[in-house]
Amino acid sequence: MKLCTKKAVEEARERNLQLPEEKNGLILTLTNTDGKKYGGMSNKPLEEFKEFVEIASRADANVLEIGAAYGTPYLMETFKKESMGHYTACELVGDQLRILATRIEELDPSKLSNLTLIAGPFPRKEVVDHLQEGGYDAILALHVFQFLTEEEVVEAFKQVHRLLKPGGKLFAKVMTPYNGITRPEVLQKRAEEVQNYLVHKTRPLPGFVKHALARSHIKDSVTDDLLKALGITTDLHVFQFDRDVMKAFLESENFLIEICEYSPLNFPPFALDGREHLTIVLQKPN
Ligand SMILES: C[S@@+](CC[C@H](N)C(=O)[O-])C[C@H]1O[C@@H](n2cnc3c(N)ncnc32)[C@H](O)[C@@H]1O
């Protein structure tokens, strides 16, 4: 659903929707209509993907962010620039977009015309029907594709390819299986599935975990209270991305891979061995 930006501001004010307080650099996201919570928005200054903001700051640019939450530091940084293009923020939880709109209105009301708000689940039809085929210079998707099913992950990358302009880029960050909360025996099983995929290249892509936070999957030391404090509900399914699987898959989807490498998440209890995140930068060929 497309939200009118001015109406979004009015509704946020009427309903007194506020940006929640930040704790340890994270602002927990709101509960979705399905009763699930999808983690927190990072509120730290940008450390990487500065190229996304450079592209978004060009007056003729058209960019899209998927899982934009309440206005990520990337979005806010772009709207603080004197010059910028058009920014479409897509987010599952509509009230987060309403709060985002108030933040832009407080920053500079004239910039609301540079913003489009799409509420709903990417890559489902109700969302992608509002997006422009071949229309985007850059797409940003941070910590969002991990909440999709295997079919949705495949569809998400197909849609990203369809939506980018030739030469346009995707900047993404996702979780891997290699984190400190997963039981070692589960990791061993995943390694076998990965090897099998790399030999046969047949779907499903390994990585989907239906009950990711089930006791059979996570270590006993990770308590329900700890997960609650991290803004995660225990009934979540996740997709965990392996680097080699993704390299093979993304090449088959006709992307040019600039970066597809592990990166660390030094955040307990997730920290393990520096492979907790997968950083992805892709280009659609010209
Ligand atoms: C872990 S938070 C990350 C927020 C932000 N991208 C960041 O990195 O700080 C995940 C966000 O993605 C949203 N989300 C989850 N599934 C989504 C989907 N299918 N389409 C769009 N947004 C989604 C959640 O509501 C939440 O705001």
Automatic annotation (TrEMBL):
Q: Which residues form a coiled coil?
A: none
**Domain named Methyltransferase type: residues:** 64-170
The record, for Pfam families, names:
Methyltransf_12
Transmembrane segment boundaries: none
- Please give the SUPFAM superfamilies that the UniProt record associates with this protein: S-adenosyl-L-methionine-dependent methyltransferases (SSF53335)
Task: Name the chain's protein.
Answer: Methyltransferase type 12 domain-containing protein
Instruction: Name its species.
Output: Plectus sambesii
